[in-house]
Amino acid sequence: MKKNVFYFLPILFVFTFVCPLQSQDSDYSTKEQSPAIAQNVETQKDTLDQNDFKAVEKMPEVITQVNPVYPPDALEKDIEGKVYLKISIDVSGNPTNVEVVKSSDPIFNKSAITAAKNYKFTPALKDGKPVAVSVVIPFKFSLSKEKKENRAAQECYYQNADEMPSIIGGMTAILKKLTYPEAAKKKKLEGKVLIKIYVHENGSIDATNIIKGIGYGCDEAAEKAVRECKFSPAKKDGKNVKAQVILPIQFKLK
């Protein structure tokens, strides 16, 4: 079994055009998150005009980020790369079109595009109102951590065993160690982070991977809390074995 991991350069890059706002009322949030979006010199030189930075007063922010799958062919051939995608975002913060601006290898294009289509943004603002825009986002595929995680997955971490790993102290143990990020609180962000955990036969954690995140520091906080907990190992035929489990970590404001 292969475990797909990627590295995403967590910076949104500026607009290529601005469309007129359609006539409608809006109650979109205008709270700012930094540095979720920032200008990038390399991308600006490659794809954008400096005057485009003045097009809107507030850029979109990522609400939901979906991890792209590392292409199996690229993994087998030890290929790394980066894909720059131009994403058109409507006044509701939804991607309406995704196209490749630049790619180091076409092998990564489909995976990056699929992930980008499932992103969710806050809308851009012009004159205090949401507008449709385009942004350029780079997706970086790196094998440094991927190779380590893939080796772990190949060492037979059972998905199904007679007894699966369990948290010592239950979910309460994780919640006690979980810190709600201030950035998420300011956004009043709630949601569920899914984490895949590779548990050693002695109960220690060999590796973790965010399967689905919600951003604003919640993914990192959930992973940190999980790693600080202890697990009872999985058992198969009466013996301790390595196993992988997926845990949902809920972020909910009181």
In short:
The protein is an alpha+beta fold. The protein has helices spanning 41-47, 72-76, 109-116, 144-154, 170-177, 182-186, 218-227; strands spanning 18-19, 62-64, 81-89, 95-103, 120-121, 124-126, 129-141, 166-167, 191-199, 205-212, 231-232, 234-236, 239-241, 243-251.
Give the helix/strand layout:
Blueprint: E1 18-19, H1 41-47, E2 62-64, H2 72-76, E3 81-89, E4 95-103, H3 109-116, E5 120-121, E6 124-126, E7 129-141, H4 144-154, E8 166-167, H5 170-177, H6 182-186, E9 191-199, E10 205-212, H7 218-227, E11 231-232, E12 234-236, E13 239-241, E14 243-251
Antiparallel strand pairs: 1-7, 2-5, 3-4, 3-7, 6-7, 8-11, 9-10, 9-14, 12-13
Helix pairs in contact: 5-7
